[in-house]
Amino acid sequence: MRPPTVGEYFVVEQPLLAPLPTEPFDAGQVIETRVDRHSRIWARAGFYSVPTRYIERRVRIVLHANELAVYDGSTEIARHEWLVAKAGERLELDHYLETLLRKPGALPGATALEQARQAGKFTPIHDAWWSAARKARGDKAGTKALIEVLLLHRRILREHLVAGLAASLRVGALTADAVALEARKAPESDDGSALVQPQDPSSVASLTQRRLAHLPPDLRPLPSPAVYDQLLHRRPAAPKESLP
Fold it and tell me: Taking a C-beta distance cutoff of 8 angstroms, is the pair 64, 105 a contact?
């Protein structure tokens, strides 16, 4: 007679096992560290960013197989995939926006901006809008306007915001308020084309023009200044004689 298999033993033992816990067990390694003055934490031979408001604060890092999470108390404040190279940096542009809003001149050379471009989070539409804003309003004001737009990512879906950037760029409305307005209208697009991320600003259909196309024709006559021509024929008043 053969001995019972592992599966047969498990059938006997299964009814006697305690139920699994309802809360998931986090198997990650926990370490504590302090955020440096560049708003970064050091973990496994690399730097990772957290929001700038946590500079010089102690935080908790949970290390997993493919990523790490950073907590302030029980609140998750950042999550990053592991770096491949040692002594590298993984910086999230969103973590630095409040500081950049006060110092917009630091944005063009920021490492976080370059990493956002490489990750596809900062698209050619962002760059085209930024270039037009700087040309129209100057480098400082144009860059500050772009940072205000980037802050909108926290409350507006990314694809809607990109559509809003493209639409506002097409009509020349280079303000964060205009981008937010067009972004909120993007889901109302009949054919959904506003949800597609465009690569060339010249190929983007204007939401304003699309709405105007559905309005009835304006049959009112063009205004004319002819009724005011009678004012040209009035004789000028005779000059009063001055007293000796």
Answer: no
